[in-house]
Amino acid sequence: MHVVETDVLIVGSGPAGACAALALSTYGVPHIVVTRYSRLTRTPRAHITNQRTMEILRDLGVEDEVLAQATPQNLMGNTTFCTSMAGEELGRIRSWGNDPLVQAAHDLASPTRMCDMPQHLMEPVLIDAALARGSNVRFSTVYKSFEQDEDGVTVTVEDRLRGDEYQIRAKYLIGADGGRSQIAEDAGLPMGGQMGVAGSINIVFDADLSKYTAHRPSTLYWVLAPGATVGGIGAGLVRCVKPWNEWLIVWGYDVSAGAPDLTEEYALSVVRQLVGDDDIPVTIKSSSAWTVNEMYAETYANGRVLCAGDAVHRHPPSNGLGSNTSIQDAYNLAWKLKLVLDGTATPKLLDSYDAERAPVGKQIVTRANKSIGETAPIFDALDGLSPQTPEQLWANIDARKDATEAAAKQRAALREAIAFKVYEFNAHGVDLNQRYSAESSTAVVPDGTPDPGFERDRELYHQPSSRPGAKLPHAWITSGTRTVSTLDTVGKGRFTLLTGIGGEAWVRAAQAQSLDIATVVIGPGQEYDDPYGDWARLREVSEAGALLVRPDGYVAFRHADAAGNAEQLLTDALRRILGHG
Ligand code: FDA
């Protein structure tokens, strides 16, 4: 059988596979992507794109392209609860950073803005850029099986155009083959949780709904209607794909009864119920059934086979974590593969991928499923959970307008239940507080300081930190007349050492390493200055101290002050990180 050779084989061109391809092509690592279909995804699927993902896309040079196509943050934020788009409104929550206080937190946390970038627009941006940088992408090519030995992985694939099979011999295999991952199964990755906890239907349609959105622009409109708590994701959802003409409805079904027959007539009836205005012309584009899952892999790798994305964490769209976490997995993995493949690091570095990302995967699966349950109090406040006859639900909704004590209580309960959805729609900490532990990851060097924990709710509030295992804090600094983020000084596939006046020994120590380390000195008269004093407030080390930042923007090592033995300290840190220890 014909055998093709490469360094890395990526199976899948979804957010995980596409980001892996983009990062590896940016770093100059030879690789091949194989993907089942003749095209990228056609349906909008994942869409909320958080600040951490935007930081990654900024480093990989595609932030502007994404922003040019995405729905901007200011049009995302009036998450509305209603009986239908045309029906009665029950309340709103300012979401996705559009609450003024949360917006300030977003501005302080990152140089980027979150946006709404549907997956069918995101994948082409990632794959086009990867192709332009040398990625080799084979469509209509299906993964069949793999065998691994000490030196590599031999993967059998089927070429669907030619109708035959061939083999690809790679040093590493990335299984980015989605929620039904054959690779995770073949690799025997142990899974926790369960699949198919509820049934859901996506219906994509064209309709001009601007008359129901102009006064409350939003990406999400939640519909509390009879039947809305059966299966699904907590309530009916009308989601904007392209303002304000293209939409996606998510509607549940009883998973024990199986998915309904997805005829055009059925899809139209659901659209009519959730839109609530039969005069608006509707064109159904597609319908598909899927299940809500609550499953995560306990480990992400088996030898030379590493899985990423939905292959290792499967959960509902609540909190918009699906493609974000998949992109973040791939970005965590790509630089490690590069350094192992070019001989800078030993394969031990790859153990840190699993150690760092598996806890994140478990956490987001739990969060997303919890968010579904947190919609129930809204129905509770309307006595709407059972029995759900339309008449009773509407009567309960009407009852909240009465001048009675009971109605006042109901109004308060409804306000409170909607406000509690902040954990789904404004969970800035879930997006940005991922920490990698030096106890489990060797790519993080403990600095002897105790874990300070989180001062406020870690799911809601981002807490910057320069402690090893945290993402480098963002601060606006200057270089001549340019204003840049501290995050702009790191990345690009390289380690970076940040120090200030008095940190010359750290700069020399970085330059003395065989590894290429960028150096950044911040202070008056240096290449960078800190005119606002923001960096001084955030860095948590003295001016002459040092932070060593990994190519993925995470702090790997820090030292509080100048050190006479800076070179030795840095060399020791790198030995641990690169697996030479
Ligand atoms: P993803 O599933 O995107 O990609 C897998 C890739 O592997 C595909 O390119 C596929 O063709 C390929 N592949 C699979 N098996 C293969 C094989 N044997 N050989 C070759 N290639 C193979 N999320 C959200 O936040 N909001 C939403 O509304 C939705 N809606 C939604 C609808 C539907 C129908 C699905 C299936 C999923 C969602 N999601 C979602 C989830 C979101 O799409 C998901 O989290 C990300 O796409 C995960 O990205 P991955 O790259 O890991 O997998």
UniProtKB/TrEMBL annotation:
Q: Which Pfam families match?
A: FAD_binding_3, Rng_hyd_C
The record's GO molecular-function terms, alphabetically, read: monooxygenase activity
Q: What are the UniProt keywords, alphabetically?
A: FAD, Flavoprotein, Monooxygenase, Oxidoreductase
Would I find Coiled coil among this entry's keywords?
A: no
Q: Cross-referenced Gene3D superfamilies, in alphabetical order?
A: 3.40.30.120, D-Amino Acid Oxidase, subunit A, domain 2 (3.30.9.10), FAD/NAD(P)-binding domain (3.50.50.60)
Q: Does the keyword Oxidoreductase apply?
A: yes
Q: Which residues form the FAD-binding domain?
A: 5-368
Record protein name field: FAD-dependent monooxygenase
